[in-house]
Amino acid sequence: MQTLVEGVHHFRQNVFPSKLRLFKRLAKGQQPIALFITCSDSRVNPNLITHTEPGELFILRNAGNIVPPYGAANGGEEATIEFAVAGLGVEDVIVCGHSHCGAIRGLLQPDAIKGLPAVAAWLSHAEATRRIVARKYERCSLAERLARATEQNVLVQLEHLRTHPSIAAALACGRLRLHGWVYKIETGEVSAYDPDQQAFHPVTTVIPAPPPSPPSSPPSSPPSSPTRIPAASRAKAKLSRAV
What we know:
six-stranded mixed β-sheet
């Protein structure tokens, strides 16, 4: 607890003053660029991974980055998704799984969550993931099955997302994109699902090339320094192709 208290003091004395204008603006409202659905695992930090500032991500976290189908659970997932999409008008939704996920291990190895009935009940929303892996990767090693289960679970939860009315309506109007990501803790690599190739590939940042400059005489003064890309633009550039 002492570590947390010291962290609060550091934030108030050093971080907050340096971002005072940002927090004054955020106090008036929020306009996040994406809904980021990921695991509660302490090793996963959405803002750190995407290099975003406060106010840029609307974040939903739970064990196993699970999205129950609409009406299937009485939790806060439905309200969070609806508020982000219908209330705040986010244009991108990302479901991000990660390596070494305890929920995925518990899904494939029930003994790992023995004595945790609430966790076992929650993982019933990933039953399709378990069955896909059991059928498709039964001859693979445990490590390989865990990796494939992490990916399959992202895809299963994306399908669950589509059952939510706010998501279905936004997709039908063409104002929403869905993305499936997997974050690898040990390497920092983020892979995104490519629906055309039906596979996960490393996320790449695509920044449009500047238009060619017209021929001119050498400048009489030194060129100005490059303009810094705003954090929101950087974050949008990192989004992969929609699923």
